[in-house]
Amino acid sequence: MKPIASLSLDLDNKWSYMKTHGDAGWESFPSYLDIVVPRVVDFLKNRDLKITFFIVGQDAAIEANHEALAQIPAAGHEIANHSFNHEPWLHLYSEEQLVEEFQKTEDALSTATGKHPIGFRGPGYSLSPTVLKVLADRGYEYDCSTLPTYIAPLARAYYFFKSPEMSEEEREKRKKLFGKFSDGFQSLKPYTWDVGGRSLIEIPVTTMPGVKTPIHASYVIYLSTFSKLAARAYWKTAIQACKLAGVQPSLLLHPLDFLSGDDAPELKFFPAMNLPIEEKLEFVSEILETYTGNFEVVNMKEHADSVAASQKQVREVRVEIA
Ligand SMILES: [Zn+2]
Question: N or C, which terminus of the chain has less Cβ within 10 Å?
Fold first, then answer.
C-alpha cells in the first residue's frame, strides 16, 4: 500500500492578494471565485481527488460568492477555516479578537456551505500559542499553519518581541513560551500540540526535507517558468526525499495555480501569471500525477485522523498558555 499524503487549497481571493500587495480597490472585495472554483472542482473531479479547501470567512459572508462556494462541499471536498480577514499578523491578535474572528468565520462558512470547520490554517502561516488555545477551546481537531523553513520562525520571533509596551517580565515569560512553541516549527512530520491537556494535530505544510525550501505547487510552477526540466527534477527530488525521510507530505495549492493573467488582469504581475492557462494546468496536472503515483492522496481531516490513530509514533509539543 502507498503511504498517505494530503492535498489542500488555500482559497485566497483576488482582494486578499491586492490587499497584501497594497493595491487600491481591495476594500470592495473583488472576487474571482465564480471563475476559479468551478475550474478547480472540475479539475479535481477528473483526477478523482477529494481535498480540503481553506476558505476565508469574509468571502463566505458575501452572498454573491455563495453559489461558487456551495460547489465545494457538493463535490465532496472538505471545508476548513482560513480566518475571516486574512491578515498575516493573526499571531498578534488578542484572545478576544481571535474568538470574534473564529465565530464570524464559522457562522459565514455554515451559511455559505452548510458545514462547520474542524481544521484551520492561518493566513501567511501565522500562528501563536493563543491561536492554538482558541482552536482547542472551539473543538478544532487539526491545524495546518506551520511552514518549516529556516527563515519564518526568526521573522515570527521578531514580531513576538517587538511589542514596545511589554514589560521585561512579560518579555521573559514570552521568550520561554516562544522557545517551546517554536519547537513545533521545525518538524516536517505531523505531531500533536498539547494545549493545556487538550490535543490538537499539527500537519505542517511540507518543505524539502533537509534544506527546507518550499515545495508547494505555486513554487514549482514558478520554477517551471525558468526551466520545466529543472522544475520537474526539483519536484521529483522532493517526493523521493519525503519517502526517504518517512515524511507523509502535505501539498498546498493556490487559486493562482489555476488562473492566468487573462482571468485576473489585476494580478498579472504575480509570478507565473504570464503562463498560458493550458500550459499551466498541464504542469499542475503533471505535479499531481507524480504525487498520486507515489502516495495515497487524502484530504486534511483524513490525514489528521491517520496521525491521531498512530499516536505512539507522534511527537508531542507542549504549549503553555500565558
Ligand atoms: Zn491565504
Answer: N
Look up cell 511589554; give the residue: 166
**Nearest residue to 204 via CA among 67, 314, 66:** 314
pTM for this one? 0.91
Q: How far is the CA of 10 from the centre of ligand 1 (A)?
A: 5
From residue 44, give the alpha-carbon distance in Å to each of 25, 26, 47.
32, 29, 5
The strand pair at 250-253 and 191-195 is best described as unpaired
**pLDDT tens string 212-247:** 888 999 999 999 999 999 999 999 999 999 999 999
What spacing in Å lies between the alpha carbon of 115 and ligand 1's midpoint?
Answer: 20
Q: 321 alpha carbon to ligand 1 midpoint, in Å? A: 26
pLDDT tens digit sequence for 267-303: 988 889 999 999 999 999 999 999 999 999 999 999 9
CA distance 146 to 122: 8
